[in-house]
Specification:
Radius of gyration: 17 Å
Number of domains: 1
Number of strands: 0
Structural class: mainly alpha
Strand content: under 5%
Largest sheet: none
Number of helices: 4
Order of helices and strands: HHHH
Shape: globular
Low-confidence stretches: 158-165
Mean pLDDT: 89
Distance between the termini: 18 Å
């Protein structure tokens, strides 16, 4: 399992992962909130790009560095790189679900009238639903897919040139 080794590779990997996760989670949240068919295509695209930028900033500045730090501490004695990757992925999903659920709740409130007695309860509901979707999505689908694409198209091969295959 290849992981990014340089800052450039980490940025490329982060953009790829963030794009895929935000795309799927945006559609999922639109569906959950009954927004599909209620908003225009352009509103959906705008919401996606705003979410993508926010998620990328969170990934690069707050969640990513902390997730890696915690995961590396917990797996320092592990011999298998898979444990470290799974731990980083788990911490990333928890952190991103925490922050992006706030964004999702604010977006939902902005697109519709807010009718609730408990914003904390609503947040916990959104966070729980996002975590239940994002964790398997990351570990089973997006993580392996992005790693495959990363190794195939971004990670330099043994001769030092970019892979063309």
């Amino acid at each position: 399992m290849e992981i990014p080794a340089t800052k450039k590779e980490s940025l490329c990997f982060g953009i790829m992962m963030c794009f895929g996760m935000v795309l799927v989670m945006t559609v999922y949240n639109f569906y959950l909130n009954g927004m599909i068919g209620e908003m225009t295509f352009y509103e959906g695209i705008a919401d996606f790009f705003i979410a993508f930028i926010i998620a990328l900033i969170l990934d690069l500045i707050i969640v990513g560095p902390n997730a890696k730090k915690f995961a590396l501490k917990l797996t320092a004695k592990a011999n298998n790189k898979v444990y470290t990757i799974l731990m980083i992925s788990t911490f990333m999903v928890i952190g991103m679900a925490f922050f992006m659920s706030i964004f999702g709740l604010v977006t939902t409130i902005a697109h519709s009238e807010y009718h609730s007695n408990s914003i904390v309860g609503d947040y916990l509901s959104v966070f729980g639903k996002n975590l239940l979707m994002a964790l398997p999505l990351q570990i089973i689908i997006m993580g392996p897919l992005v790693r495959f694409l990363f190794v195939k198209f971004v990670k330099p091969n043994k001769q030092g040139s970019l892979s063309n295959n």
